[in-house]
Amino acid sequence: MPKKTQAVKGRNMEGAVARWYAKNTASHRDGFRKEAAALAARLKPGDTVLEVAPGPGYLAVELARHGGLRIVGVDYSFTFVEIAREEARRAGVWADFRQGDAAHLPCNDNVFDLVVCRAAFKNFGDPVGAIREMHRVLKPGGTALIEDMRKDATAKEIAREVSGMTMGRFSAWITRRILRGLRKRAYTHADFERMIAETPFHTGDIRTDGIGFAVLLRK
Length: 219
What we know:
7-stranded mixed beta sheet, alpha/beta, 219 residues, 8 helices, globular
């Protein structure tokens, strides 16, 4: 009998921890708006978008503000799903947030034009399974975009990245420590090539972006 894989690595984001994270990242809304605008420019009215592990839902909600798009978010954290639903309600936009595992998405086959996973991939217990699921739920011709840390990002690069964020001195110190810890779970360029090769995508476009990667996969 195959060994069951944990859905996430480390501590799951629930309760007070999830609410602290949501409050801390809320200060980066300008970044979410800019990223949503860049993604929306690649889409057309009626397209469907899935964000895997949207956390508090800030990016998904900003995408929904563009109108004409069907937005779905799937997160393993029940608390994040509640926060994201409330965020969408307050913004007056439609977005469907669901609880689920990235390696077993609660979505039908061939549904989405775009799948996005931002700053969460390193936390998945079954990363290859998550990539396979992205392929399954994408429409033929659809695209998946994974953005996450590089394992080889240096302490100096992390400090430079954090210095560009809008936060106080203490929050910046905490953020640097968190990022250095999360780096241990991150992947190298070679790791991504190997994982993608084990899925129906077979290959992908992997580009260095600051302290992270932008991985583009086409079905």
